[in-house]
Specification:
Structural class: alpha/beta
Number of helices: 10
Mean pLDDT: 85
Largest sheet: 4 strands, mixed
Strand order of the largest sheet: 1-8-4-2
Helix content: 25-40%
Number of domains: 1
Strand content: 5-15%
Shape: globular
Low-confidence stretches: none
Distance between the termini: 36 Å
Order of helices and strands: EHEHHEHEEHEHEHEHHH
């Protein structure tokens, strides 16, 4: 069955949420992701680079270090610092990485959302892919993977590039500092965003091909010829959802950092 309208998808969402509610959501929590083409795999941005893993893992660290250095030196001045900075050893690296993801920097984080409407918008928003089938994913995430305000220390005391498990991060949103324009964090809040992350080598493989994860993933095809209609059905969500990274100042700086990793890795 192809999804051709919100009416087609709504009963599926209702059924998933109803079944989870019956179980009290003690063991699993639903997350959603949309992708504009059905040919896409569930891959994080960094894993799409065609390069040898041993070299790529070094470049990943250099890219993150370069980015964090530019934030700390105010060369990238639109990144919000976390509160309680001294509470966790690597909270700055994590919080800066979240914002990097929403600015377009290549990371091993994969975006998911708590709102199915936002995921559906990702699947239908790009007009250049209208007429081509898209994807809508539901990840019934085991509770053991979830990081939230009650167990942040599980990851925040480890460098984000050195984690050893699967994590779905539901980090608290921080109130904006008066006068600040922390656009990436605002975008994450607006999209009700979560991040899924894995150890480097495991994260190079598509989630939907990993034996321990594919049982929790449900894929639905979004009919390409129905994308424009679905986008219109979503209404005001479309106008509120903004690609902040297209701001010229931000786009230039992030493109520079991405080019560092692309050129040095000779990625095509």
């Amino acid at each position: 069955m192809k999804i051709k309208s919100i009416e087609d998808l709504q009963p599926i969402i209702n059924d998933i949420q109803h079944n989870l509610a019956l179980n009290g959501r003690q063991d699993f929590v639903e997350n959603y992701r949309g992708q504009s083409l059905n040919a896409y795999k569930l891959l994080n941005g960094f894993s799409r680079f065609n390069h040898k893993p041993n070299n790529l893992i070094i470049k990943e660290r250099k890219l993150l270090e370069k980015y964090v250095s530019q934030v700390n030196n105010n060369k990238i001045d639109f990144i919000q610092a976390p509160y309680h900075q001294r509470q966790y050893a690597f909270i700055n690296e994590w919080f800066f990485l979240y914002q990097a993801q929403h600015l377009g920097l290549k990371t091993r984080l994969m975006d998911w959302t708590m709102r199915w409407e936002i995921a559906l918008l990702f699947a239908v928003n790009e007009e250049r892919h209208h007429g081509k089938d898209g994807q809508f994913w539901v990840f019934i995430c085991p509770r053991e993977y979830i990081i939230n305000s009650g167990n942040l220390g599980v990851i925040y005391n480890t460098h984000p590039l050195e984690i050893e498990g699967n994590f779905m991060i539901n980090s608290p949103f921080y109130q904006e500092v008066k006068g600040g324009d922390f656009i990436a964090e605002r975008r994450r809040a607006r999209q009700h965003g979560r991040f899924f992350t894995q150890p480097f080598l495991k994260g190079l493989g598509a989630m939907d091909e990993q034996h321990d994860l594919k049982q929790y993933l449900h894929k639905y095809i979004i009919d390409g010829n129905s994308k424009n209609r679905i986008k219109n059905e979503l209404g005001n969500i479309t106008s509120e959802w903004i690609y902040y990274r297209h701001d010229e100042n931000i786009h230039t700086k992030i493109k520079f950092l991405n080019d560092l990793i692309i050129n040095k890795c000779r990625i095509k």
